[in-house]
Amino acid sequence: MSENMNLTLKVWRQKNADTKGSFATYKADHVSPDMSFLEMLDVVNEDLIKKGDDPIHFDHDCREGICGACSLHINGRPHGPKHAITTCQLHMRSFKNNETIVIEPWRAEAFPVIRDLAVDRQAFDRIQAAGGFVSVNTGGVPDANNIPIPKVIADEAFNSATCIGCGACVAACKNASAMLFVSAKVSQLALLPQGQPERYRRAQAMVAQMDAEGFGSCTNTGACEAECPKEISITNIARMNRDYFTAKLFKEEEV
Amino acid sequence: MKLDAKIPEGPLAQKWSKHKFNLKLVNPANKRKYTVIVVGTGLAGASAAASLAELGYNVKAFCFQDSPRRAHSIAAQGGINAAKNYQNDGDSVHRLFYDTIKGGDYRAREGNVYRLAEVSVNIIDQCVAQGVPFAREYGGLLDNRSFGGSQVSRTFYARGQTGQQLLLGAYSALNRQINLGKVKMYTRHEMMDVVTIDGEAKGIVTRDLISGAIESHAAHAVLLCTGGYGNVFYLSTNAMGCNVTAAWKAHKRGAYFANPCFTQIHPTCIPVTGDHQSKLTLMSESLRNDGRVWAPKTVELAQKLRKGELKVTDLKEEDRDYFLERKYPAFGNLVPRDVASRNAKEMVDEGRGVGASGIAVYLDFAEAIGRLGEDTVRAKYGNLFDMYQQITDENPYKQPMRIYPAVHYTMGGLWVDYNLQTTVKGLYCLGEANFSDHGANRLGASALMQGLADGYFVIPYTLGDYLANIGPKAVDTSHPAFEQTKQSVLERINKLLALKGDRTVNDYHRELGHIMWEYCGMARTEEGLTKAKGLIRELRADFWKNARVSGTNEEFNQNLENAGRVADFLELGELMVDDALDRKESCGGHFRLESQTDEGEALRDDDNYAYAAAWEYKGDNQPEELHKEELVFENVKLSQRSYK
Ligand SMILES: Cc1cc2nc3c(=O)[nH]c(=O)nc-3n(C[C@H](O)[C@H](O)[C@H](O)COP(=O)(O)OP(=O)(O)OC[C@H]3O[C@@H](n4cnc5c(N)ncnc54)[C@H](O)[C@@H]3O)c2cc1C
Ligand code: SF4
Ligand code: FES
Fold this sequence. Notes:
Shape of chain A: elongated
Shape of chain B: globular
Number of domains of chain A: 2
Distance between the termini of chain B: 43 Å
CATH topology of the largest domain in chain A: Fumarate Reductase Iron-sulfur Protein, Chain B, domain 2
Oligomer: heterodimer
Number of helices of chain B: 17
Strand content of chain A: 5-15%
Bound molecules: flavin-adenine dinucleotide, iron/sulfur cluster, FE2/S2 (inorganic) cluster
Largest sheet of chain A: 5 strands, mixed
CATH topology of the domain at 483-630 in chain B: Methane Monooxygenase Hydroxylase, Chain G, domain 1
Radius of gyration of chain B: 24 Å
CATH superfamily of the largest domain in chain A: Alpha-helical ferredoxin
CATH architecture of the largest domain in chain A: Orthogonal Bundle
Order of helices and strands of chain A: EEHEEEEEHHHHHHH
CATH class of the domain at 483-630 in chain B: Mainly Alpha
Structural class of chain B: alpha/beta
């Protein structure tokens, strides 16, 4: 087992949405390489509380990479240096003794800071509410096996469905575009037979809401895909664009 | 008050359909005159909120996360049971009912469990219609697997992310109603108390977690769908925010709390590495299908392994004790969760634990890799092996995994009748937060089923009956009970904020967890429990003197949020201990050392303990009063479990 580490943290501190933030520097000593990144912050926070300072606020819940709550920009990268994991899955063994680590919140106009490292991602929920569903009520649906779906299609839809709504794609993009997130849902439902009746209407409604929320436009840099912890592919974006333009050309009246 | 479970008369298979017919209906034109509050938007809450809104009721829904999609349900891996019998392997509603009653060690109600099995088939249809991408076979039909030692393949799954996909399905249904204006969603809001007027629930008081604003909300009925309380143990597989606050506040307002000591401990979790540990990670129990559990034969060998003087891969075959295979030749590594967990603890208690802390046993795949080849093992368990390696930095293809049991699920919860109503009229409880269907032990893949059964298919019917009876008279927050409840919430917050001692809230939580784990965990004794009761009381008193809570109410203050939750856990812990003391038998996840068979297995006492223990709150630091709901078994024969 490797030795404990001493680290310097430069952390974004911001009281609330209305005040300006700035970096503060903290020492994190005797950090075990077996700690997760968030556990390291827990320990720092315990010290801050004991000293009478405000602890560093950050969102987290499951701490196993599935709820999408954690959202730190670490040394310039959403979810830190390792590929295809979330911040809560990052362990301190990925860092070196005496290293300085810079920790920031997601930066995007559509994600205003709530406090310190916690941001407001409700824009994502509003986009989902605009069309990310199949309009069926509870009850009165056919037997599940009456809707056979080829395994390859089901698997492809599943890949799109694994998005955890963390927002790293937006944070990674220089335009703060939400295309990867939106296209993942649009694709999941566009691939499945259940999603067909509302396919074009859905693409239009979700894109319209995305634009209304103030996310930037997509210029195909691919940064989103590279930083997505769930490896959502940018082919989803192409798929969504196709549906969106088909809708615009031929189905405008539907929306 | 006498407990009335309101289980309908008649043959088991007809109870629910008869009951549905007897329930009053709300006139369709009147539905929009009712408001229903749903607290919690995990599987149970999101499905309930969406379904009720579809019927025409106005719904106000609340969750403490920043989005309903992040509820703890998202973390479920394994799958969801349903008696579809798609595999033609002999499953049926009756078999799922029987397995659930037996698995729960005969401490659940027949009527409720039968209904659960009955509606399980509708759940799968509903989820597929929503676009939930369950695993499929090449022919395009749904795939199933056998789970947790079940003899039939009735578990539906979506890779290792079943909870996520089911929750996103329920979330999409909820979103549709938000979009239609039928559900008003309040995220980052915590319910702080229930408002009751003349003994009936008429609303709630919440705290806006961003601004700190304390707000009142009125409704015709309140549904608590707030999940389990496993985090009373500090370390568990639950998400960090899981808490008992909503259920506990309801308890203090008159809702009985049932079987609080029934907790489930899952055998295959990644062990603790140090004091910094904040939560534990579960690995699917499917690992036990091919992995062999063992500990070193002697304490000396275990010590050498711990100090690194001996490498685990160098340990000779004859120095390994495959204790589950040795003790349970018939079931071997596939014994139920509680048996596997307890035996691992025995090894550690004997000093034969491994890993730096000595609190772990091995789960070894060497034999499976030899038999099946590394590629096959990778295909089956690759993602679990990766997860293990990521957390521990050890390669499980090259050396055995270290595992240890961890708290996973709470069978106890608010007492509810057949209609899911608590002992407070108008206050309902759904999902893991209630006690209803799993008895003393829950079967794998049955929690997701219960949450969605409650939300999609039970509450839309049973709530209507209550609403029809009280009538659609408009509600508002003008009654003085709202202001009084708000004041008491504020008082408590101020009391917490006034704590400026030298110990952090987390520190108290950790210590409470140690006490609960040590004395109210996998094995319980009269002596240990009595000791724990004293320790918890002391700790609670100390908390209210020496804890330190930072900041103010009028801001986003995670330390304050946590303080409120831990304060409630400090009260719940004592009730759990009381409940474990009362139940002198062993059953399911509750193992009293005083009640074992000659072979050292759990010994039930059906003559004296075939009841659900429902506790009534009697005031701060007062003993709670126990009410017994006798369980009647007319359709199953009670038998002792044996896995030899
Ligand atoms: C790691 C893990 C794996 C699991 N795997 C499986 C499995 O494979 N199969 C299976 O059947 N079960 C599994 N379970 C169990 C299952 O996931 C849960 O029992 C179930 O999802 C609980 O659902 P729920 O809707 O009752 O509560 P939750 O999903 O926990 O939702 C609770 C909701 O209540 C809200 N809430 C809580 N308190 C408050 C408050 N005071 N104010 C406002 N809102 C509040 C939360 O915000 C949340 O929305 C697993 C559990 C764990 C921990
Ligand atoms: S697409 Fe990837 S990065 Fe974007 S929200 Fe989904 S999981 Fe996060
Ligand atoms: S805390 Fe849930 S994904 Fe990181």
